[in-house]
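Discrete fold record:
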Amino acid sequence: MTTLKEFEDALREQGMHMALAILQKLRDRDRTKRSVAPARRIAGRKMTPELARRILELHGTTEMTQQEIAFQLGVNQGRVNEVIKRGKWLDDNPASTEAIARDKAKARMRGDDSRKRPEQRAMKTVSSSQKKSSMLKSSNQAQLLLGDL
């Protein structure tokens, strides 16, 4: 199967300028009819207790899937699942695990990470002569074999 570019090159080699002109008209027509569809969700909405209750309401009263609920409300399908399965985000408690995780993530994004990153240990470099001398030292040690017993 050839690509459109290869087909166009073959037409050009054969001198079929009329076919190339038709191909260009078709491309121009297609470009004018194309529309750029808006993104499904540009940025997720902040999860609130009200939004969580709306998710539960839609889940209970309609036959919508989690993906459809997420699309309609502009949230991630994973968030919808968390609300339905685990009851997350139903209270506005700032000490809840979701709120703490959210605040930590926001702090990391701002660069306020209070945790110290572990310092990298310096690797000790060993020269080849030092390696040879250590090998000689270890080879001078006696080894006990099973036949020696």
Notes: The mean pLDDT is 77. The helical segments are 4-14, 17-33, 49-61, 66-73, 77-86, 97-110, 128-139. The two ends are 75 Å apart (CA to CA).
